[in-house]
Amino acid sequence: MSIGLTRLREEPDRIRQGAIDKGEDPAVVDAARALEGRRRQLLGESDLLKAERNVASKRVGEAIRGGAAPNGPEVAALKQTSTEAGAQIEKIDADLAAAETQLEEMLLRIPNPADPDVPVGDASANRTVRTWGEQLPREATTDGQAWSRRPHWDIGADLKMFDLERGAKITGSGFPVYMGAGSRLQRALIDFMLDIHTTEHGMTEVWPPAVVNSASARGTGQIPDKEDLMYVAPRDDLYLVPTAEVPVTNLHRDEIFDAAELPIRYAAYSPCFRREAGAAGKDTRGILRVHQFDKVEMVFFEKPEASAEALEWLTGRAEVILQRLGLAYRVLLMATKDMGFVQAKKYDLEVWAPGVERWLEVSSCSNFRDYQARRMAIRYRPEPGAKPELVHTLNGSGLALPRTVAAILETYQQPDGSVVVPEALRPYMRMDRITA
RNA sequence: GGAGAGGUCGCCUAGUGGCCUAGGGCGCCGCACUGGAAAUGCGGUAUAGCGCAAGCUAUCGAGGGUUCAAAUCCCUCCCUCUCCGCCA
After folding, report:
1. CB distance A189 to A405 below 8 Å
2. Window A363-382, strand B contacts by Cβ < 7 Å
3. Distance from residue A253 (CA) to nucleotide B8 (C1'), in Å?
4. Could you give the dihedral angle defined by the CA atoms of residues A380, A251, A220 and A200, in that order, rounded to the nearest 10 degrees?
5. Where are the domains of chain A?
6. What φ, ψ does residue A102 adopt, rounded to 5°?
């Protein structure tokens, strides 16, 4: 996850401004440039000495084959040349390694500049680009009877769909147990979403491992930056995935595609594990913020020139799910300081939950451009025989389950306490209505 | 978990310390031949960094070591395959 050296050299001003727009310190940009120059100089010296050493070593072989005594003075002199060069190389390479480590650290602290059409500012600059559906009020009237829509935790408890207390008993707070219709709703939603993305949207379905090794965690930038947010199995050097983005994006780490293979578009279900350290006290009720949840994630690998449009399409595919479920939502274009360090452009989808009277984030759709691909060395060949270039990566939820479930329960609840199953889910739920 | 065999340039393969700046075949690209094609012949076909360029450097699963010199020898680790054990 980093900025490219070429780009750093060619447009430092834009990168510096990008850092400022995201509220980061632009000084690292200059520090990186200085280190890059030092690295280049040391590398030149090292390469030169290595060339000398190689020549001397080769002459040793030639001399011996030519009849010189293997332990004679001629050979000894050549060996000494090589040894001396080797000693110098060792010193320079140590400096070089240090410079490269520092450079890498600096590069990791330079954020991906936002696209030009992203509003500059903090969360207050986020722009609502569109809304869909009817934003139901909490206070409702049905057949002349006034009633209040209830929050999903009450509905879920009454209909025995999930059990938070027992989840806390067997595992801990934030690990809900889904039961009965609640369990079936999980299955139905996963099945429903994957069906739409594969059958209608042409994506390839992936069912990835829920744990990854450290190389993969590093690839998508989970470590070292976000290690606190993940569950770790240190004994086996494995990490529980916080999102399917991690295993699925890493599928193609260190690969080079032919241009004809792109775009590659995946839809992947996975459980997601998040420690959310420091987030205690917020959204503690219900299933709005939990340590384990389920999600269908979309991951795209695109040609650079196609990624901007692909983000719009990707976002639209997540919206399709909400539309089919008949849930009111809005699409937010995130401002520079609210969008994250690595995203170039990001849309959040928020679904309306009338019981708690809040917009709930159910999807976050991002274009990383080449920033993520660089660290993972995911490239493609624009033309046969051409030099490989970095692909652009994108991803977005389609969708995260818990908040979708909350919105369904709160949107479709009836005055009698039952919940009508959204039309699109009925074939998957094999029921029209959830009752106690 | 135990025993054994392996991991080389897209694929197959050669390679047991210095003519390996990794050879051959397949595939692919270009050219020639052809009415067109097949076949054939010739040439080219990894990635990254540095350099205006010629070119130099690094990489033979990963990392360390021995040596003037490592694909090749030594150590550690990872992965694949076969057999055994265990197991949803």
Report:
1. yes
2. 379, 381
3. 21
4. 90
5. 5-108, 123-434
6. -65, -40
CB of A101 nearer than 7 A to strand B: no
Report cis status (omega within 30 of 0) of the bond before A73.
no
Q: Which nucleotide is nearest to A79 (CA to C1')?
A: B68
Asked whether the beta carbons of A104 and A31 are under 8 A apart, the reply is no
Distance in Å from B42's C1' to A141's CA comes to 86
Q: Quote the CATH superfamily of domain A123-434.
A: Bira Bifunctional Protein; Domain 2 (3.30.930.10)
* CA-to-C1' span, A260 to B70 (A): 40
Find the nucleotide nearest A44 (Cα to C1′). B50
Question: Mean pLDDT by 10-residue block, N- to C-terminus, for chain A (436 residues)?
Answer: 81 92 93 91 91 88 77 82 87 88 88 95 95 95 92 95 93 93 97 97 94 86 79 86 94 88 94 77 80 96 95 98 97 96 96 95 96 90 84 95 97 96 97 94
Give the ipTM: 0.85
Q: Is the CB of A38 under 7 A from strand B?
A: no
On strand B, nucleotides with any atom < 7 Å from a protein CB are: 18-19, 28-29, 45, 47-51, 56-58, 68-69
Contact residues for A346 (Cβ-Cβ < 8 A; gap 6+): A333, A334, A339, A340, A364, A365, A366, A367
Q: Give nearest nucleotide to A48 (CA–C1').
A: B56
Q: Which CATH superfamily is domain A5-108 in?
A: Serine-tRNA synthetase, tRNA binding domain (1.10.287.40)
